[in-house]
Prior knowledge:
Order of helices and strands: EHEHEHEHH
Shape: globular
Structural class: alpha/beta
Strand content: 15-25%
Number of helices: 5
Radius of gyration: 13 Å
Strand order of the largest sheet: 2-1-3-4
Number of strands: 4
Amino acid sequence: MEDKKIAIIACSGASNTGQITNEVAKKIIKNLKNTVMVCLPGVPLEAKTSMDKINQADIVVAIDGCPIKCANRLLEKYTGRKPDIETNIMTDYNVKKSSDPLSYTDEEAERIAQDLIKRIKQLQS
């Protein structure tokens, strides 16, 4: 059912794997209706906009760049909600972490986004 509300939380960290999460989130938002992006720093600050987006979502997706899992952990700690879909760019998609935040390709971001879109659509049906 495509009218389910979806909230995407990306870690957006300082490494390439963190930055690719932001690109992936934007690609998902462009491709799926009723999808919003949550500001991760707003979660521990309990910012109304961030919390409202999470609380109003039928499906919450946490996209983490590395095994530290900042998006996932902050979501659970400050909202008590586990993500319906969680992913780790390094372990789930074999992207090697680099301190260079620009060392990823648009093709990598597109491949990951398309996989997550498929997973989201499965939950929507």
